[in-house]
Amino acid sequence: MKKQKKLGKDRLTWMYTQMVRIREFEEAVKRAFIEHPGAIRGHAHLGDGAEASIVGSLSTRNDDDFVMPSYRCHGYPIVLGTPLGKMMAEIFGRKDGLCKGFGGSMHLADPANHFPGTSGIIGQSIAHATGAALTAQVKKAGQVVYCFFGDGAAKQGAFFESLNIAAVWKLPIVYILENNQYQAYTHFSLEDANAIAGDPLSKKAEAFSIPGVTVDGTDPLAVYKAVDKAAERARAGKGPSLIESKFYRLSAHGNVITVPPLPTQFPEHEAVAVYGNKAEFAKWKSKDPVAKFRAKLLKDRLLTEASAKRIEDAARAEVNDAVQFGLASPSPAPEEALNYVYA
Amino acid sequence: MAREMMYGDAIAAAIIEEMQRDPNVVFYGQNMAMTERDPMLKKFGKDRVRLAPISETAEIGIGIGAAMTGLRPIVELWMSEFMLVAFDQVINEAPRFHYMSGGQVKVPVVLKAGYGFCAGWAGQHSNCIYHTMMGIPGLKVVVPSTPADAKGLMTAAIRDDNPVVYLHPYMLTLDKGEVPDGEYVVPIGVADIKRTGSDVTLVAVGWMVKKALAAAERLAEEGISAEVVDPRTLAPLDVKTIVNSVKKTGRLVLVDQAPRHSSAAAVIAGEVAEHGFEYLRAPVRMVTALDTSVPYSEPMENFILPNEDKIIQAVKSVMAHDAVAA
């Protein structure tokens, strides 16, 4: 079934609600490092700052379209309706987790919601998303694939190979290059040829003779407009597009990498911690997409202080329940590790 | 009913039959289906049979993503070494998703490639890389050695819900053998005793099965009865059939086209050392390629590869050990 495409009050309120749910979830994951030490193992990557980009993109989606991002993957299933408790339990490595504790933060999967899974190896999932587009094309079900990846991934061979094949085969896929400005700890201006030449990263589309645009990824309506056009193009059989959605990752790349038993936690953002650039961080913090969209909806009288607060309180309560659900869930039995080696 | 068929044609027969049976099977690769005259293209159409650009990472990654979402792709990679360009996809993507998703996702993709083309292709196109994939949980690796197994294992690989690396020894492509008509499935994970014997077990992989069988013929003339076991599947490995054979013969010679430490033979020797030590009447012997790259020039290439004489020599040495020990 086709989602309502006209962005009326209800739809805009829904979009704001999803952005708040993502933000609250990511804040809770971050707090868990302090409030529940040891609950999260390994490496967790947060999507705060990406809310407008994620929600603006997915608002254009039909219910059966595939969503295939990278390992920075919490935000997308939240929008798709995956229960937050199961997500948090997975991030805590518990039995009731989305993947029963086998995947963790980097590998959430909810195929029932058209979210088949994510790879932790940068760029490689672009090829998998392209494969999902092959499925969509062969099965002729009118599906489109939403493929999300970072600015770092756009330097990987998988990116170039996949976009070339998608263009050759006219696959129904939208490539959303989330330029959050840092590949792990490296600023994109240090490693991207287009950036160094003063060009937008969407210029890479020219190499494949496909449409390429750059949008303000802190504005969900701008993202919506660009992605909707690309998705409709893909659905019409005209092939892939590349959209650079430019925003700013508001947290560090991930929690600090430490060896047990040292406690792990979220460090300061690379802009400050590595580059000593407090001004840059402050500038982008002032463009916080959630706060900006809230202000816009208030200004347009589509939300009131009271209705906005109700949305935010509800999201906070939902996320709090998710944390409690995760903490209450037992760890898997050790020997369960022998399951799922082969299908 | 069965009929004589070349090894290469037997693989094609399995692919065609499975594509006729299941509309979710798709087939693509480099340098195929380039013109409308292509018979596969004619039969199945351009959605299901495709020419891919020379992009192994994307070809294999697309196969994985398509498999995760409902297709059963066969990716034609031609030579196993080309997979090395995209090894992340082979060993750190395809076999991980079922496990990492807690069993929610399946990746039924077949990665088809020839290997061990020892016919003057020198150092980069003649290798055996199966050892690198044998120890990856979630990945299946099959190496058929006869036309019948080539058909039956391809059918099984396409129907399997896991990623399967299907490796065919290029040197067997033109070999002929009886192949059953119609649906024919050789189960993955089951070794085959290609020749029964009582004095010594020869476990050989791929092309080497043919050489081991030829050596066994000559040994029989000298009164030595060799049993030839073909694992057919390297992962998961049928250790039980191998150990049972060793239990019967008491002696083991492993024949493998790969260099010693990157051979399947090394893994099998380890399994027999742990699970079959009490049955051994002589030390295990490995007849493998010598520890060099594969040279271009023919006399050098022949020198480094296993052959019938080397197998016979190894068998005689384990028989002699027994005599000394007695």
Characterization of this structure:
The complex is a heterodimer of chains A (343) and B (326). Chain A has 343 residues and is α/β, with parallel strands linked by helices. Chain A has helices at residues 9-35, 51-58, 75-80, 84-91, 124-139, 157-169, 193-196, 220-235, 270-273, 278-285, 289-299, 305-328; strands at 66-68, 145-150, 173-179, 182-183, 186-187, 212-216, 241-246. In chain A, the strands form two sheets. A five-stranded parallel β-sheet of chain A has the order 1-2-3-7-6, with helices on both faces. Chain A has a two-stranded antiparallel ribbon with strand order 4-5. In chain A, a hairpin with a 2-residue loop joins β4 and β5 (186-187). Chain A is globular and about 50 Å long. The mean pLDDT of chain A is 96. By secondary structure, chain B is α/β, with parallel strands linked by helices. Chain B folds into two domains: 2-180, 3-Layer(aba) Sandwich (Rossmann fold); 192-325, Rossmann fold (3-Layer(aba) Sandwich). Helices cover 38% and strands 22% of the residues of chain B. In chain B, the strands form three sheets. Chain B has a seven-stranded mixed β-sheet, sandwiched between helices. In chain B, strands 9-11-10-13-14 form a five-stranded mixed β-sheet, with helices on both faces. A two-stranded antiparallel ribbon of chain B has the order 1-8. In chain B, β10, α8 and β11 (226-230) form a beta-alpha-beta unit. In chain B, α3 (56-68) packs parallel to α4 (87-93), α8 (207-221) crosses α12 (308-325) and α9 (239-249) crosses α10 (264-275). Chain B is globular. The mean pLDDT of chain B is 97. The chains are: A alpha/beta (343), B alpha/beta (326). At the A-B interface, α5 and α6 of A face α3, α4 and α5 of B.
**Topology as H/E string of chain B?**
EHEHEHEHHEHEHEEEEHEEHEHEHH
First and last CA, distance of chain B: 49 Å
Low-confidence stretches of chain A: none
The CATH top-level class label of chain A: Alpha Beta
Pattern of helices and strands of chain A: HHEHHHEHEEEHEHEHHHH
Q: How large is the radius of gyration of chain B? A: 20 Å
Write down the overall geometry of chain A. globular
Oligomer kind: heterodimer
Strand content of chain A: 5-15%
CATH superfamily of the largest domain in chain B: Thiamin diphosphate (ThDP)-binding fold, Pyr/PP domains
Task: Please tell me the total number of domains of chain B.
Answer: 2
Measured between the Cα atoms of the first and last residue of chain A, the distance is 31 Å
User: What portion of the residues of chain B fall into strands of 2 or more residues?
Assistant: 15-25%
How confident overall, as mean pLDDT of chain B?
Answer: 97
Number of strand segments of chain A: 7
- Reported by name, the CATH topology of chain A is Rossmann fold
Name of the CATH superfamily of chain A: Thiamin diphosphate (ThDP)-binding fold, Pyr/PP domains
Give the biggest beta sheet of chain B.
Answer: 7 strands, mixed
